[in-house]
Amino acid sequence: MTDPRRTERAGMLAVALTAILWGTSGTAAAMAPELSAVTIGAIAMCGGGLLQAAVNARGIRTAWTAPGAERAGRMTPSQVTAQWPVALLGGICVMIYPLCFFGSMRVGGVALGTVVSLASAPLFSAVIERVADGRRLTTRWSVACLLGIVGSVALAVSRSESSHGDALSGSHSAALGVGLGVLAGVTYAGLSWAMRRLMSRSVPRGAAAGTVMGLGGVFLLPIVAVGIPAVIEHPDTLGVLAYLVLVPQFLGYVLFSRGLGRIDSSTATTITLIEPAVATALAVGVLAEPITAIGWVGMTLLATALLVLLAPRLPSSTGPASISVEAESPTGRSTHEAVPRGRRGA
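The structure corresponding to this sequence follows.
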């Protein structure tokens, strides 16, 4: 019998690797200063999303074609129809997230945009799971989330002095930057929840990720079309764009979806708070940006947050931790069943 905690740890490590890959995006994007941040973000997310859909095309067809899905013992036709709104919501979030994230950094500054976008996502994930799934917050998650947010703020403060040239018309618009950052946090939490919800509703992992990311990629095509002339004008940026599409966005989301198959979305978004730590380390080592003592404190707090999540649980007299999963019966009525944490959607 698989150890639920071991399965959960495997999911956490997959998401941690995702955050490491995502953390390379900023340094890579700095190698293509000729392109705007929005163009880079749109092309990277669009390319990665469409590639996810292409690789998982067979699984997507099987999962979403009602007769085939029913034969495979996955979803009935009514269940297929019921899950499409979740998939569309996830695709819309995939479209909006990179525009708001990179826009927040461009308008409000790198430090403010990064902190508001990434640090708010776990909080929004917790709210979404509480409202939509009735999930209770654990003390372990609360401590890790607090450490991660404080660590992210400390990193942002340490880098704010070296963040130049990211203002609009020579000055930062803090209010607009915060607004875009909050929307980025909401949509990041939304796309994570949508993929996790599909997996818990009998959609295979690859099909869930390919559907949500693929829809987002399709929605981003008009914005990509606007940025294509700039890419043609600067063909030397193609290598950077190829890296962003294949590594952070494609491979990163493959690992992210594997992690979501074993942990909930609020835990996943908390773990990805180590992304700014990776970005900072690369900025120091590759771009020669300075880091202050408070920055090192922030990185330590982020590492501690990850250790808190990975630490073994204390023995419990009630047995393995379980979570309530809402399942839809063949009659369309909702039922509940308790399953070990980390076993859903595996």
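The longest helix spans residues 77-108.
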